[in-house]
Amino acid sequence: MTPVSTTMSTSAEMISARLERLPMSRWHIKARVIVGAVTFFDGFDQLMIAYSLPVLIPKWNLTPAGVAWVIAIGGIGMLVGALGGGWLADRMGRLNVIIVSLALYAVMSLGMAFTDSLMLFLAFRFIQGIGLGAEVPVAATYIGEITKAHKRGRFVLLYEVIFPVGLVMSAIVSAWVVPRFGYEILFALGAIPIVLLPALFKLPESPRWLASRGKYDEADAAMRRIETEITERSGKTLPEPEPLATAVVDTSRGRFREAFQGIYLRRTLMLAAIWGCAYFVNYGIASWLPTLYRSVFEVSVDTALHYSIFTTVAGLIGCLVVAFLIDNLGRRICITASMVLCSTLLFLLAATGTGSAMAVLAWSAGAALFVFAVNMALYVYTAELYPTRMRAIGCAIGGASGRLGIIVGPLVVGGILGAGGTLALVFGMFGVVALIGAVVVGFFAIETREKTLEEISQ
Fold first, then answer.
1. What integer best gives the mean pLDDT of the chain?
2. How far apart (Å, rounded) are the C-alpha atoms in residues 133 and 401?
3. Which residues touch 74 (CB under 8 Å, ≥6 apart)?
4. Exposure pattern of 390-413 as b/e (b: 16+ CB <10 Å)?
5. For 118, which of 213, 240, 282, 355 is 20 to 30 Å away at the CA?
6. What span, in angstroms and rounded, lies between the C-alpha atoms of 101 and 26?
7. What's the domain of life for this entry (predicted)?
8. What fold does the segment set 10-232+253-456 form as a domain?
9. Contact in structure between 178 and 301 (CB atoms under 8 Å)
């Protein structure tokens, strides 16, 4: 017996209805774990450069400007990857882009491990960034599309938490590996995710995406795979899907310019601003902290890396907290309040906390708790604001804006320090940027909790 009759599966609206009536199941958890493992290694690979810098600086005699560019070159690659990955994901499929992205960033990490040339290292880092930048927003799109409206924020964010877990593990592994075995072994470990490729090939493509492209037979086949696995494991019969009254799915091809037209213009500009502000603050601080501990406060490489662990753990806690609050308080309140609190702590750090490494550690960890929460919330929120045919494009624009923040944040820090600026000026600047992000979301964001993806896109 098939889970749903053939006549009921021939429209994009019915595919959405079939997804919405699915109970949360082991299949959803399996998909979240497999794609989450890819995202874990994305997080692991992304910050390895920050934890290697205390060793790379003397190796290549890097100036503050040189350090900033070593950090920023990866961000430039991520910017290209976010834009290109989103465009490809709306044309080639979500899983195809995730698979290619994983292979790209894993192989390039291996290349970084085996070169002594600064120029080759930078080239590999740029190409690795393309894979890193494409994977996370497309993976978030895929997870969002297989999830129903009820408690979608919690489900997606509990998946996204794997990214900061990757950041934490990167800090812990780096603190142990780099002082003992060198940065080369650390980058070699970045090739491990290659082993995830077979599991990714076994997942079905997003039925919502397939239906949005008019591939109804393939969408139906993907849905039947999911429905069959759920019913066989639970032993229960699924209820008949009921068409969603407000769900009229446009199956035309999405284009970048549409994100800047009609109701999507305000959403896109708001998202671009908050993505840029949040990642400017997050990556600007996280990428420079190990170097600041080492160069300003003259602690050992081992100590600098151990201090960085506390910041990423605080960020992980923030991600867990927002995952359990976002469906109750809503996206707008969670993001705005987190940015206000992050800004407040950064201003306090600039005013009173730059005199010692421990003070910087305490205040920056508090700020990280809130800005990491915002970064995670943005993945679920961005995927909700666009229809399926252009969802990956919307996520790509948000991700690209974040990657622009990743590029500019470290460069601004390098410029301030290179010109003789103080840590108080650096952290005060971060506080201003965080406050701008809070104001933009507070005034221009719309609420999306407990609404289907099709309702929000109307």
1. 86
2. 11
3. 46, 49, 125, 126, 128, 129, 132, 406
4. bbbbbbbbbbbbbbbbbbbbbbbb
5. 282
6. 26
7. Bacteria
8. Growth Hormone; Chain: A; (1.20.1250)
9. yes
Q: Quick one: which of 130, 88, 137 has its CA closest to 109?
A: 130
Handedness of CA 346, 348, 352, 357 (dihedral sign): negative
pLDDT tens digits, one per residue of 369-385:
999 999 888 988 888 88
The owner of tokens 């399996």 is 30
Torsion of CA 359, 364, 365, 366, to 10 degrees: 100
Domain ranges of the chain: 10-232+253-456
Phi, psi of 356 (to 5 degrees): -145, 160
Q: What is the pLDDT of residues 78-97, one digit of tens each?
A: 889 988 888 888 888 999 99
Nearest to 122 by CA among 41, 62, 212, 42: 62
CA 444, CA 90: separation in Å to the nearest integer? Answer: 26
Contact 159, 144 (CB under 8 A): no
pLDDT digits (tens, 9 = 90+) for 105-148: 999 999 999 999 999 999 999 999 999 888 888 888 888 888 87
For range 139-162, the mean pLDDT: 78
The residues near 61 (Cβ < 8 Å, ≥ 6 apart) are none
The owner of tokens 């970084």 is: 112
Q: Which two tokens stand for residue 102?
A: 């994983």
Q: DSSP label at 205?
A: P
Has this prediction a pTM greater than 0.70? yes
Distance (Å, whole) CA 397 – CA 381: 13
Distance CA 309, CA 296 (A): 18
pLDDT of residue 250 exceeding 50, the answer is yes
Amino acid at 401: S
Q: How far apart are CA 277 and CA 143, in angstroms?
A: 25
3-class DSSP state for residue 82?
A: helix
**Do 392 and 382 touch, CB atoms closer than 8 A?**
no
Q: What amino acid occupies position 174?
A: S
Q: What is the pLDDT of residue 175?
A: 85
